[in-house]
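Same chain as my last thread, 493 residues:
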Amino acid sequence: MHQYEERLLGFLAKKGAATLDEITDATELGRDTILWAAESLQKAGAIDVKRAGIVDVKASQEGERYMEEFPEESLVRKLATRKERVGDVSDHIALGWAKKNGWITIDSGGILGLTKEGGKAASGSFDYPARKVLISLTTTEPGRRQDLINKNKDVVAALVKRGLIEVKERNEIRSLSITKKGADMLAKAPKEQGIGLLAKDLIKSGEWSKLGFRPYDVSAPSDTVYPSRMHPVREFINVMRRKWLEMGFIEVEGPIIETAFWNFDALFSPQDHPTRDMQDTFFLSNPDKLTIEDITALHKVKEMHLTGWKETWNEELARSAILRTHTTSVSARQMRKLAKAMQQNYPIRMFSIGSVFRNENLDYKHLAELRQYDGIIVGNDLTLANLIYVLKTFYSKLGIDDVKVRPSYFPFVEPGLEFYYFDKEHNDSIELCGGGVIREEITKALGLSRTVLAWGGGVDRLMLNQKIFGVESLPTLFKNDVSWLRSRGNLKV
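reply #2:
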């Protein structure tokens, strides 16, 4: 038996039961030393340890700021004095929680309004339950926190999910007492020399240098370790990239800040098409116009619009600076590059993955910023059968075998198809991508005399599929819920 274990057992044999503070004062052993000896003796059945549950609550930096005012409170107070459009609200968290709380309405024009409950929340006398519980949890005595948590389970769960607080439960030692086996060990067991735990008091006194070390117990309990992990969206994008590369595709990229020319005009989207409206597209103000350097393509696309849509075409609109609404703009640029290349070995297979931006209402399958994948196959004698085969092969590599295909309309392909699957969890058809054969008007305007198969779809929506990841909604992926990010399952592809 180690000398520290003997001293602890000897004291408990005389005292019967004692707290850590009492043992520390009487034996002059350090707290770390006592804890090590107690753990070893408890494992041997020599002592009984009585514990009590304690809840520790720590507010994050963001949580400390929210004690003054939550962002959704700030939003409704602002709406009480003036009107705002959805697209003008930069804080999507505030917007999402105000909507979830039933404080706001959004009309067909994207104008925000207050509900009756929202009006109450905007008043100076309103005491927001989330803020009230946040303050109480961080100021209440540890022994009373569990009752507070039990009475406000939903609110506390939301605070944890938003990363405003971290709640940890721990068992605190209240008392130690010797058992009959411990008394027998004290009487019979030989002393065992050596250090089991290099405690702080041993280092301070220098006593560690006079003692040996006991064998290390690899079976002793340890704290949970959370190694760094890649964000699930980035991890999934890497998986998709690997699947495309396995199928012989090459990856290409394009600018996020794009001209309306490459985003819309080059893809035969008419200049008065609803998707160009501010309701769907984010137009930049600085700069509000960008240069179109390929003058030949500019003139050819203009001719395509005048001939095809038989209406005026405005170059200034084509030069508008926007956040790209799809990665098909990358495909358009690549088709133009292929047309200008001297020699190529066909077919050529390309894909791109990147962020796109749309002024969407937020729900479980829509976000204002999303990631999209796009692809083209350029060659001779290509048909829809080739497109269906390639995409079904790709989705099967992701574990989605029940892919359905139906006719659909997209401005830049003819004919067009939509690929989808039925999500039983949400009782809804989830679109995987749209695609088809690029219109001859487009390939001709871009100077490409080949058949082009093209498609584009949302990366994030794929993660809703239970066979791949199984998250319930897209916002779940971007709430930065540390506990979820630590405990999330692995991708199933």
